[in-house]
Design goal:
The complex is a heterodimer of chains A (434) and B (366). With 434 residues, chain A is mainly alpha-helical. Chain A has 21 helices and 3 strands. In chain A, 24% of the residues are buried. Helix content of chain B is 67%, strand content 3%. In chain B, helix 5 runs antiparallel to helix 6, helix 7 packs antiparallel against helix 8 and helix 12 crosses helix 13. Chain B is mainly α and 366 residues long. Chain B has a two-stranded antiparallel sheet with strand order 1-2. Classes of the chains: A mainly alpha (434), B mainly alpha (366). At the A-B interface, helix 21 and strand 2 of A face strand 1, helix 4, strand 2 and helix 11 of B.
């Protein structure tokens, strides 16, 4: 068989296989020549040319979806008739129609699965819960819809670091509208971005590039963006801080705070400017935070008077054991079992930091006492190692004294023995000198 | 003398033992054994010193055996238990480890002094050969014992050491698998090294040591050619003169061991993790360092051969020539050939010292 004929045969076979597997053009798939791009790129009006620029970088283009995929029409028709409504042409959606326009595909799970086996399915129902959607419905055009956050022509994948909705870009994208200038005349806070940038979350995401840190949408939602109005705020924080969230949600303090008009976690930690929690927060006196609710001689104050010294006592117990063990290690002593105890005590300290959120004296004191016991055992091992080290030195000194004494005796004996004798020439025993 | 007709006097314990064990020849030997006394007599003590430290090794090794458990899961923990929970366990382990190093040091001094004083000349060729075998056994003791605590440093040092053996042509692959008990260092390697360390090597060493001591006794101490030429050397009695001097040295060694063990107790380090990356600055025991440094200084290729292979073959050839020195050197220990061999010996001392110092000075990164 000649090579050309063989290739043609393979092409025909490939086409049959493709048809048999159902591989074919999908809705709006870009044809080899796209009349939309061809014509619009040559027009004079900037508004009409702009969408064609950088279209190749668009996430839709990368999935082989052309202009017709969103706007309809016939991209094979090289004439103006390509934009015939009879050919499905929809043109540019009105501002209030944009979400519905995108939802045609993004809310279609069947369709989205063709591009991603685990797709995010957009929900208009969820979007309608957002303040943004409600304002749009009221005719407000100064609120965000899909294109305000995701961009348009090109729309980049959210995984693309250049995308405005890439995790680390989300705070600045939100701040494009949530700032004092844009929000003039509205009753909306505008200091969130400045506060967030100073927060532990903001520093982790924006300065360290840690994309596991929360951005605005992690707490507020994205397409259903609202101020968190959950039953209690611990459900929001608890999404990431699971154990603390669970303990707090089960505590009596949660309801007491709600009754007092305070918002759970926010009462002690703040929200947008949440800082790294420090152990100094656990005190009734400033900078401690317990005193802001537990007034003097209240039951809470009495419990705090027990917990706070216990908490700081555990910390100093761990520090003491650490310094004793380090000192022993510097002297070459083996401290593995002491180190193991110290690690367990440190784990208890980490645990107590979480258990504090239960606001349950018995639970907290149980963990504190276990930790203090372990730290005390570790410190005992450190002290024993140092004592052992001292005893080894004494033992060494005594043994050296005995060894040196024996050596001295031997040398004296040899001298005494040989004082009167001269070494013998070959074949004879030592000779007496005198 | 009164009472001559009474019952015969009961024999003392010496007589009692002599009748049963035949100790008289030994007593006569001790009485008559002599050692040459001259300006180089100092070097005679190093054989006895090596033997004393070997005795320390045997005694402390037996004590360690009471607690050591030879498996990858338990070895490290058992040594840690010994060092932290057993009374004087730390001391026994520290003495065992330090004494091993001092023994190799003493053996090396003994070997170089024998070489440079030409004590290997006839009829002591077999004494020299048995000594070289004993040195090889001591190094094997060190290599096999190093892995037994199953810590990180030992694990990777053993890996590097066995990798080098694996580079040998023809037999390398077989030897590597033979040493490791497989392709990798595993708990099986540990068990194998343990068996070698506490059973196979001691059995062989006992026999060869017996032969070595017998030959030393048979031929006596060699007198260096320079002293020999000056006329008959003076002599001293082995018992008690030489033996008491030996004992002074042994006591000094014991003092050094006590000092080292108390001031620098042998560390246990971190437990070996076969999946962890090799720690930085990994280096074999100090007595292997000169070979390690030689291999590192060689270029990646020497002609058509790999640099490492050339190094291994070169060190092997040098070791063979060194071992055969008694047969290649001048039998009288005089003349130009003898001077050449003396020069070679001095060069070897300088080379080994220089390479060892360089390795430590460069911290493993030349």
């Amino acid at each position: 068989m000649k090579p050309a004929r063989a290739l043609a045969g393979a092409a025909v076979l490939g086409a049959w296989v493709a048809l048999a597997l159902g591989v074919g053009p999908v809705r709006g798939q870009a044809p080899a020549t796209d009349s939309c791009l061809e014509c619009h790129s040559q027009l004079d009006e900037e508004r009409l040319v702009k969408p064609t620029r950088n279209f190749a970088a668009d996430v839709h283009a990368q999935h082989r979806l052309g202009c017709a995929g969103c706007h309809g029409g016939d991209p094979k028709d090289m004439d103006v008739t390509a934009m015939d409504p009879g050919k499905g042409f929809r043109g540019v959606p009105g501002y209030e129609q944009i979400a519905e326009f995108c939802a045609r595909c993004h809310a279609d799970a069947e369709l989205m699965k063709r591009y991603n086996p685990q797709p995010y399915i957009f929900s208009m129902a969820e979007f309608r819960t957002s303040v943004h959607c409600k304002k749009i419905a009221e005719g407000d055009k100064k609120v965000a819809t899909c294109t305000n956050c995701h961009g348009v022509h090109p729309i980049l994948s959210r995984k693309d670091p250049k995308s405005p909705v890439y995790k680390a870009n989300v705070p600045s994208t939100c701040a494009r509208c949530h700032n004092a200038d844009y929000m003039k005349g509205r009753k909306v806070r505008t200091d969130q971005y400045a506060l967030y940038r100073r927060s532990v979350h903001g520093k982790a995401l924006l300065e360290k590039g840690d994309v596991s840190a929360p951005a605005c949408n992690s707490c507020h939602g994205n397409h259903g963006a609202v101020p968190p109005n959950t039953q209690n705020i611990s459900l929001v924080c608890g999404n990431c801080h699971g154990r603390e969230g669970e303990l707090f949600a089960a505590s009596r303090v949660r309801d007491a705070l709600e009754l007092a008009g305070k918002r759970g976690c926010v009462t002690c930690h703040g929200n947008h400017d949440v800082q790294v929690p420090t152990d100094e927060m656990v005190s009734t006196r400033p900078p401690g935070l317990c005193g802001q609710c537990h007034w003097p001689n209240s039951p809470g104050d009495k419990a705090t008077a027990l917990i706070v010294p216990g908490f700081h006592g555990l910390k100093s117990g761990i520090a003491e054991a650490e310094s004793l063990l380090r000192l022993a290690e510097e002297k070459g002593m083996e401290t593995a079992s002491g180190r193991e105890l110290l690690k367990q005590a440190s784990d208890q300290l980490v645990s107590v930091r979480a258990v504090l959120h239960s606001f349950d004296r018995v639970q907290i004191m149980t963990v504190l006492n276990e930790g203090a016991g372990l730290a005390s055992q570790a410190a005992r091992q450190g002290r024993a190692a140092l004592l052992d080290w001292r005893n080894r030195r004494i033992g060494m000194a005594l043994s050296l004294v005995v060894i040196l004494a024996l050596m001295g005796l031997l040398i004296a004996r040899i001298r005494r023995m040989e004082r009167g004798a001269a070494p013998a020439p070959e074949g004879g025993a030592p000779q007496a000198r005198g | 003398m009164p009472g001559g007709g009474g019952p015969p006097a009961r024999p003392g314990w010496r007589e009692w033992l002599d009748v049963r064990l035949g100790l008289e020849p030994l007593r006569r030997l001790a009485e008559h054994k002599e050692v040459p006394a001259h300006r180089h007599t100092f070097w005679y003590y190093w054989g006895g010193m090596t033997l004393f430290l070997f005795g320390v090794q045997v005694a402390t090794g037996i004590l360690l055996l009471l607690y050591y458990r030879a498996s990858a899961d338990e070895a490290y923990e058992s040594v840690r238990f010994l060092m932290t929970q057993v009374s004087f366990g730390w001391l026994i382990r520290s003495i065992h480890s330090w004494s091993a190093n001092l023994m190799i040091g003493a053996a090396l001094i003994h070997m170089f002094s024998v070489f440079l004083l030409k004590a290997y000349r006839g009829p002591r060729e077999v004494t020299w050969l048995s000594g070289m075998v004993l040195l090889g056994l001591a190094l094997a003791f060190g290599f096999s014992g190093y892995l037994l605590p199953w810590n990180e440093l030992a694990f990777f040092a053993t890996k590097v050491g066995t990798d080098i053996v694996g580079d040998l042509p023809l037999v390398g692959r077989f030897l590597l698998r033979f040493l490791r008990g497989g392709d990798q260092i595993t708990g099986g390697t540990l068990t194998r090294f343990f068996g070698v360390h506490v059973a196979i090597l001691p059995a062989i060493a006992t026999v060869i040591l017996g032969v070595h001591l017998y030959l030393v006794q048979r031929h006596g101490m060699s007198v260096p050619p320079g002293v020999e030429a000056a006329g008959p050397a003076r002599r001293m009695r082995f018992v008690p003169n030489f033996l008491m001097r030996d004992m002074v040295g042994w006591l000094a060694a014991l003092g050094v061991l006590a000092l080292l063990s108390a001031l620098f107790p042998w560390e246990l380090g971190v437990k070996a993790d076969p999946y962890a990356p090799a720690p930085a600055g990994i280096r074999p025991e100090w007595y292997f360092v000169w070979m390690f440094q030689t291999l590192k200084l060689l270029p990646s290729h020497v002609g058509p051969l790999e640099g490492e292979l050339v190094g291994i073959l070169g060190i092997g050839a040098a070791g063979l020539v060194w071992t055969l020195a008694p047969f290649l050197d001048d039998a009288e220990g005089r003349g130009p050939r003898a001077r050449l061999w003396s020069m070679l010996g001095a060069l070897a001392v300088v080379y080994v010292t220089l390479m060892t110092v360089l390795s430590y000075a460069w911290g493993g990164n030349p």
